[in-house]
Amino acid sequence: MKKAVVLRFPGTNCEFDTDYALKKLGFDVEVVWHKEEKLPECDLVVVPGGFSYGDYLRSGSIARFSPIMNAVTKFANKGGYVLGICNGFQILTEAGLLPGALKRNNSLHFISKFQHIKVINNDNKFLQKCEVGEVLNIPVAHADGNYYIDDEGLEKLKANNQILIQYCEENGQRVVLNGSVESIGGVCNENKNVFGLMPHPERAIELALGSIDGIKMLEGFKA
Amino acid sequence: MKAVVNVFLKEGVLDPQGKATRHALGSLGFNNVNEVRIGKQIVIDLGASSKEEALKEVEKMSETLLANTVIEDYNIEIIE
């Protein structure tokens, strides 16, 4: 059985949804407190959503210095798989494990709704079960999801297939959701073992809750 | 000793809060406003023995935590 570790910081609020989703997909899951200095043996580390440290200073900026993050950085540098969802994505960019940064939404509003996203690249562990161009319906809930990267960085992302998803209409037409550069909703690192996205796949695993498109995404880590 | 750190989004990085505020000023009749940039000011009380030492220390703080240099610039003022 694959083992996933879900991190928990003060202010994290998606750790139990993530735990539920991963267990449903057949993972053995352990929730780990941020003060721990060591990671248990595992196949995947998930940095879940929420408002670590109340989003003080900048979203994710303080959590990234929690003791557990040293272990996560070492794990990632050895090729271990790390997934950051929403606040987790912010933490991973702040930690320098993912390129770019997440700014305040251009509307200045907290956006909480179902959002269509288009798969841009699937030559990676995370989205290997999805097709390129496939449109998924996944909830978003964030105030700071406005992805920024400079032109040079953007070219690198494109050249190395690091853009994971873009926000779109149901028909796949790209749409401006929060002001992100090229409507980017998720990226991975150059080695394709660290992933981050603003949408919440763990909230899209039960038909009763509106969508099961998140299963296809998270299942990539089971293969 | 006191250090004042001003953190702003870099030139060329769109500042949505500044933009919204500029529009609000315009609708209040302040028509001469070309641009508004909103940042934050961080005031640090520290026990450094000299201005130079304080500046060095606060520069390190700014680079590691206070600013995200991917999107932000900062400046530091040391007040005795």
Essential attributes:
heterodimer, A: 223 residues, alpha/beta, Rossmann fold, nine-stranded mixed β-sheet, two-stranded antiparallel sheet, B: 80 residues, alpha+beta, Mth169, Chain: A, three-stranded antiparallel β-sheet
Query: How many separate domains of chain B?
Result: 1
Domains of chain A (count): 1
Q: Examine the secondary-structure arrangement and name the CATH architecture of chain A.
A: 3-Layer(aba) Sandwich
Low-pLDDT segments, ≥5 res of chain B: none
Oligomer kind: heterodimer
CATH class of chain B: Alpha Beta
Strand elements of chain B, count: 3
Explain the overall architecture.
The complex is a heterodimer of chains A (223) and B (80). Chain A has 223 residues and is α/β, with parallel strands linked by helices. Chain A has five helices and eleven strands, in the order βαββαβαββββαβββα. In chain A, helix 2 (67-77) links the parallel strand 3 (44-47) and strand 4 (81-85). The mean pLDDT of chain A is 98. By secondary structure, chain B is of the alpha+beta class. Chain B has one domain (2-79): Phosphoribosylformylglycinamidine synthase subunit PurS (Mth169, Chain: A). In chain B, 35% of the residues lie in helices and 28% in strands. Chain B has a three-stranded antiparallel β-sheet with strand order 2-1-3, covered by helices on one side. Chain B is elongated, with a radius of gyration of 16 Å. In chain B, 15% of the residues are buried. The A-B interface holds A 57-58, 61-62, 65, 93-94, 100-101, 103-108, 146, 148-149, 179 and B 9, 13-14, 16-17, 20, 65-66, 68, 70-71.
Chain-wise SSE layout:
The complex is a heterodimer of chains A (223) and B (80).
Chain A (H helix, E strand, L loop, with lengths): L2 E6 L6 H10 L3 E6 L10 E4 L19 H11 L3 E5 L1 H8 L6 E3 L7 E9 L15 E8 L3 E3 L2 H9 L3 E6 L15 E5 L5 E4 L15 H6 L5
Parallel strand pairs in A: 1-2, 1-3, 3-4, 4-11
Antiparallel strand pairs in A: 5-8, 6-7, 6-9, 9-10, 10-11
Chain B lengths: L1 E8 L6 H12 L12 E6 L5 H16 L5 E8 L1
Antiparallel strand pairs in B: 1-2, 1-3
